[in-house]
Amino acid sequence: QLELVESGGGLVQAGGPLRLSxxxxxxxxxxxxxxxxxxxxxxxxxxxxxxxxxxxxxxxxHSVKGRFTISRDNAKNTAYLQMxxxxxxxxxxxxxxxRPDSSNYYYIRSSEYDYWGQGTQVTVSS
Length: 126
What we know:
Number of helices: 0
Distance between the termini: 40 Å
Helix content: under 10%
């Protein structure tokens, strides 16, 4: 069982930065490709960014490309989402997710992930 705990959410003004962290425990962190998803009120959960288990390849949804950066530190069992130039449309609960996988690939569908954190609220004011 892999446990994930997000932190770093909060209230930020439009244009500002925020960094989310996802701390993992329970298993070998480097065995798990990771991703961030978000869910705004009344909307479905959507993919934001994904990273391979070795951290050498990333993929982003179009709306955050160039503003968000996903990364991971396997020595610290932690994944990150650096968010810059935030806009009100980024307001959502952000979740990190993981799946056990021996390949060095990333995944972008929520159904492909087995483990989820509890979420952290990000609110961007205009």
